């Protein structure tokens, strides 16, 4: 059985904690009365994502590639949640984001992912803190089977996937050599409030600019497994409380396949708009046709995601409405057609 008290009143280091998923994890850890240290260089994370009034939260703006620093922080910690990546802002890199970035700058991607992970492992080798490494479904590449099991062949088709797989390999090695308690979590398509990248963000951003037309990369038949951020975080917290999870790899998804065409239909129906949707039939290198998780292993441990896709999209849209209102006021000042639906988001 999961014992939530095993991750209460502890000290947790969250590398990449100011980012989308990381900030939700930080909130959950704080709710469980943990002292939380966030290490983030703010390459894509934002301070506004973090609570500003928590006495239990310490923020360190610095780089995970600094071994001395990571050792110092890990020495104080009972748990280390490693999410740190260099994920550039959308306007800097365009569609594809972290994978497209890794195509353009593979050495930097490798340095941050692999060196950063080695630093965490070297640091926890001394402190013996429990490590949860956030990997990605991109390690599978273009899989021969869907849904994908943890034992499915890994054959990444992007430098990002290769870097994550290398980092996973180091995690398994340190687990075997030094008996380090490590969980490898392969996340599928996580979405929700504070997400400012990837397909849902791009669709909403484009519809905000023009709610009458929408162009989508690819055929629209690409399949994805979308998991709401709260479910992903709860799965990680759940696994971290179970001793038998350590030394293992887990898919973090829903097990439900959704095509991009179906995703577009869900979003436009929720927004009550009917744009003319076109598909380019081509996409960027590294874009995988189908990625759907087999979460049998996760369910056997005792965890099942709770949020349905429509419910999750509604939450994302409500957040988008509030962010647009408070930060840019696009809906109030713009005269283009996209502003019309922005005023009614989530209603």
Provide a concise account of the structure shown.
With 347 residues, this protein is α/β, with parallel strands linked by helices. The protein is built from 13 helices and 14 strands.
Explained architecture:
The structure is a single chain. The chain has 347 residues and is an alpha/beta fold. It has one domain: Rossmann fold (3-Layer(aba) Sandwich), CATH 3.40.50. The strands form four sheets. The chain has a seven-stranded parallel sheet with strand order 3-2-1-4-5-6-11, with helices on both faces. The chain has a three-stranded mixed sheet with strand order 12-9-14. β5, α6 and β6 form a beta-alpha-beta unit. α1 crosses α8 and α4 packs across α5. It is globular.
Main sheet attributes: strand count, strand direction, barrel closure: 7 strands, parallel
Secondary structure: number of strands: 14
Strand order of the largest sheet: 3-2-1-4-5-6-11
- Provide the CATH topology: Rossmann fold
CATH superfamily: NAD(P)-binding Rossmann-like Domain
- Rg (CA only): 20 Å
- Beta-strand fraction estimate: 15-25%
Number of domains: 1
End-to-end CA span: 40 Å
Number of helices: 13
Overall mean confidence score, pLDDT: 89
Helix content: 40-55%
CATH architecture: 3-Layer(aba) Sandwich
Oligomer: single chain
Secondary-structure class: alpha/beta
Residue stretches low in confidence (pLDDT < 50, at least 5 long) are 329-347
């Amino acid at each position: 059985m999961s014992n939530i008290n095993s991750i209460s009143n502890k000290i947790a280091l969250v590398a990449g904690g100011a980012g989308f998923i990381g900030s939700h994890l930080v909130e959950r850890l704080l709710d469980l009365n943990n002292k939380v240290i966030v290490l983030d260089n703010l390459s894509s994370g934002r301070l506004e994502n973090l609570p500003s009034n928590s006495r239990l939260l310490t923020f360190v703006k610095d780089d995970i590639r600094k071994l001395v620093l990571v050792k110092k922080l890990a020495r104080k910690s009972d748990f280390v949640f490693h999410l740190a990546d260099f994920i550039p802002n959308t306007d800097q890199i365009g569609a594809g984001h972290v994978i497209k970035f890794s195509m353009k700058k593979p050495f930097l991607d490798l340095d941050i992912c692999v060196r950063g992970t080695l630093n965490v492992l070297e640091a926890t080798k001394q402190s013996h803190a429990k490590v949860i490494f956030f990997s990605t479904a991109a390690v599978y590449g273009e899989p021969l089977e869907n849904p994908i099991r943890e034992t499915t062949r890994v054959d990444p088709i992007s430098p990002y996937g290769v870097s994550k797989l290398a980092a996973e390999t180091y995690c398994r090695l340190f687990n075997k050599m030094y008996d380090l308690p490590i969980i490898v979590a392969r996340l599928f398509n996580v979405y929700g409030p504070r997400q400012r990248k990837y397909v849902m963000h791009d669709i909403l951003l484009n519809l905000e600019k023009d709610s009458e037309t929408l162009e989508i990369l690819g055929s629209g038949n690409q399949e994805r497994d979308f998991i709401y951020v709260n479910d992903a975080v709860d799965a990680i917290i759940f696994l971290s409380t179970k001793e038998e999870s350590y030394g293992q790899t887990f898919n973090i998804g829903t097990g439900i396949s959704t095509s991009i065409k179906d995703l577009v239909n869900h979003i436009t129906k929720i927004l009550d708009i009917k744009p003319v949707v076109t598909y380019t039939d081509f996409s960027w290198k590294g874009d995988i046709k189908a990625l759907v998780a087999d979460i049998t292993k996760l369910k056997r441990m005792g965890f099942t995601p709770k949020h349905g896709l429509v419910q999750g999209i509604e939450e994302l849209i409500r957040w988008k409405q509030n962010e647009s209102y408070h930060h840019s006021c696009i809906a109030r000042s713009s005269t283009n057609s996209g502003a019309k639906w922005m005023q009614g988001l989530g209603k």
